[in-house]
Amino acid sequence: MDLIRLKNVNKKYKNGVTAIYDMDLSIKKGSFVFVIGGSGSGKSTLIKMLYREEKPTSGQIVVGGVNVAKLRNQKVYKLRRKLGIVFQDYRLLPKLTVFENVAFAMEVLGAHKDETREKTLKAIEMVGLKNKVHNYPDELSGGEQQRVAIARAIVNNPKLLLCDEPTGNLDPEMSMEIMKVLENINKKRGTTILMVTHDKDIVNAMKKQVITLKDGRLINNKEKGTYNDEDI
Amino acid sequence: MMKIFRMLSRSIRDAFKSVFRNFSLSLASISCITITLVIVAVSIIASFNVENFTKEIEKDLTIVAFLEQDATSDDVEDLIKKIKKLDNVDSYEFKGKEKVKKDMQNESEVFNSIMSDWSKEDNPLKDTFQIRVKDAEQISKTANKIKKMDKVSLVRYGEGMVDKLVNAFSSIEKVAYGVVIALIVVTVFLIINTIKLTIFSRKREISIMRLVGASNFSIKTPFIIEGMILGLIGSIIPVLLTTFGYLSFYKHFDGYLFTELIKLIEPEPFIYTASGIVILIGILVGMIGSASAVRKYLKV
Ligand SMILES: Nc1ncnc2c1ncn2[C@@H]1O[C@H](COP(=O)(O)OP(=O)(O)OP(=O)(O)O)[C@@H](O)[C@H]1O
Ligand SMILES: [Mg+2]
Question: Is A112 in CB contact (< 8 Å) with chain B?
Fold first, then answer.
C-alpha cells in the first residue's frame, strides 16, 4: 500500500524558479525514507507540497487517500491532522512547558482533557523526556527541544511524519539520539517517516530507503541506500 | 458537540488572557468603546424620552380653526368636505358658536354671567373646528392649509411651542446620530488595530496551530471573541451610568422635566432595555472590529 503517490508533479514558484520537474514517486506505508540532495535541489519544496504549504503547478499528489493537489484551503487542516511535521528550528512555544507544548497539538483540535493528558505523556515518554515534562524550552538542550517537537508531531498518532533537516542544528551525538527516537517511532507505531537530511553519517549508518534529488529531479530511489557524493 | 464547546471555552480563555496580556493596548480600545457607549446611552435615554413625550403631546394636540362670522351652514358643509380630504387629519369636531358659548358658561361663573344675556343673533363668538392630527411634526403645514380655506378666519395650535420643541429635538437627534456614528467608526478602527497587534504577537502560535491541524474556525474564533470581550468590558461603565444616572435623574426631577408637559419614562423596565441595547452595541462593535481585523490580517 502506498501512503504517498506523486504523478507528473511540477512546481514552479511565482518568481519563475522551477523547484520540481516532472516527479513520479511512491512511498509505502510504514517505510523510513531519507531525502537527500544538494542545496536548492527541491527537498523542502517536496515536503511543503506534501503538507500542502505549497501547491504543485501541475500533477497529482495523494497523501493517505487525500488528493492534496486539489485540496481547498479550508480543508487543509484535515490533512494536517493526519501527519506530523518537524523542522530544523523546533518551532516550540517558549512560554509553554514541555507538557503544554505537546498537549497544545491536542487541545487545538478540541480533544478531551483526559485523552490529551494520556496521549501527551505517552508521546513525551516515547522521545525520552519523561523527566523534563515541566521544564520550559529554554531550559533544554537543542536535542531535547527537537525531541519535544517530535513528541508534538506524533501525539495524535499520525500515519506520516515529515522531517525537514531535524538534525540540522545538532551535533553528531545528539543527532544520533534523534535518529534512535525516529527509528523507534517508525518501528513501534508503524509511522511512515520521510526525512530530509544533509548528514552523510546518519544516512550511511541507518541503511534505509534513500531518495536523491538533483536540480528538482528525482535521480535515485534505492532501498537500503547510501549517501552518494557523486550524485549530489 | 462537546468538541465545539471545549474549543469555544478554550477560545474564551485565550481571549481573556490576551486582553490582559496586552492591557495597555486593550485599554485604548476599551476607553474608546466606553466613551462611545456613554454617548450612545445618553442618546438612547434622550431619544426614547423625546419619543415618549412627543407621543404624549401629540395625543392632546389639536388645531382650532375659527370661522368667519358670516359662515353659513353650507360653508360649514363645504369645509367639512375639505378637512376630511387632508392626509394628516385624524379626527375633527365641529362646534357651533352656541355650543362654544355654553361650554364657556359651564366652565366659569364669570363667563356665565356675562354671556347669559347674549342672544343667538348677537353672539360675537365664532363657529370652530377642533381637529386632531396624526403627525405632530406636520401640524404647522396642516394648519396652514386649513387657514387658506374659505371662511376660515383664524387658526390656532399649541402656539408655535410644539413646533419649536419638535424641531429642536429632531435636530438634536440628528447631531447625536452623527456623533455616535463617527465615534463607532473610530472605535472600530481602534479595535481592528488592537486585534491586529494581538494577531502579530501570536504569529508563532498561529503558525503552529495551522501546522498541527487546527481548523480555521478554532484559529479565528479567539480573536473574534477577544473583540467581543473588549466591547463587553467597554460597556460596563456606560451601563452603570445608564442605570444609576437615570434613576437619580428621575428621582431628582420627580418624573417630570421642567413642566408637567414633559413626563419622563418610568425607570423600570426602561433602564434594563437601555442597558441591554448598550451592551449589544458594545459587543457588536467589538465583533465587527475583530472580524474585519481577522479577515485582513489572518490569511487562512
Ligand atoms: N517560496 C519560494 N519562492 C520562490 N522560490 C523558492 C521558494 N522556496 C524555494 N524556492 C526555490 O526553489 C528551489 C528549491 O528550493 P528548496 O527549498 O526546495 O531547496 P532545498 O533542497 O530544500 O535546499 P536546502 O538544502 O538548501 O534546504 C530553490 O532554487 C529555491 O531558491
Ligand atoms: Mg530545505
Answer: yes
